[in-house]
Amino acid sequence: MTNQSLQNNENKCFICQDIKSNVVYEQDKNIVSYQCPHCGYYTITTDLIHDLQYLPKQFEDFRKRAPAIAAERRLRKMDQYILSAGPKYEFFVNHDHLFLDEYPKDFFSKYNRALCNLGRYLEMSPLKKIPDSIESFQRYIFCEDAQSGMELLKLFAADGFIYLNIPRVINRTSHITMAGLREIRKLLASESPRNANVFIAMWFDDKTKPILQPIRQAVTEAGYEELNKQSFSARVIGKIRDAGIILCGSPLGYRIALTLGDITDYVEHDKSIIEPMLWRLNTARESIKTITTNNYDILYSERFVKLRSFVDSFVAEEIKNKTMLNAEFLDEE
Ligand SMILES: [Zn+2]
Q1: How many angstroms is it from 116 CA to the middle of ligand 1?
Q2: What is the pTM of this model?
Q3: Nearest in space to 163 (alpha carbons), one of 171, 122, 148, 172
Q4: Cα(34) to centroid of ligand 1, in Å?
Q5: Digit-coded pLDDT (tens) for 250-286
């Protein structure tokens, strides 16, 4: 089959089956790129398409939920990705996580994300009307059929987030309300659902410890992911420090720096991490230089220009200090 005939026969979105998609086969690279008005721009391997013809069950499961995920990705401008298959035909996004895992896991998360998507779909305008035919946008609100889509819209209306025109009155259309826009903006600010964090601000000691477990359970059941100590310090503490607030930390926890001593502790802490790292990097660099008889510098690339200058000045300073120390010893002798 030639490229031309493939395009003519199968100009169909792999995910949502829309025939308005632009499909480009790159036979030499063994990939197919899709540009779909609903699912956006994504790439998959021809092997995957071929194999799926013999796996109707996996494909059916995929077809049910995938269009909603792809539609949300397009609205969020995250639609440039590669879809590939694992050994059991799990669908991977960029070889990194499971595609179907992006489908909302509970109703609370579905409600919030559907509301956000409705806002994005209508370009955050209270003046744009919600289409009468729910089929034209139901995938954006994670609904597999028109009826459950309508039920979800009724819930939005009951909460005052949209004005829903039922029964239809002439010249009145369904649209987002100002309260709805405010809610969507709030939800968007706390995006994305994959990174949603929850804080419990309370003191935990031996007395309160027994309630920690039920709190944890409730948090995970509500669709939030539990942070371990490492991701907490990278994702939460790191960001607070980026915002210019000085936090000093100890194995017991963190607190806002209040005294000069606290600030010195904080700097000492950073020093204890950064300096050995620079030193180690320099050691690795020197080893490679020795092995390659000075032919290869691992920090040579343009990408490392800043790092190289840090390492260079750090090493120069270290050597100067050591020489001065040695000189002092010599003086004493
Ligand atoms: Zn599509």
Answers
A1: 20
A2: 0.55
A3: 172
A4: 8
A5: 767 788 888 888 888 888 888 888 999 999 999 999 9
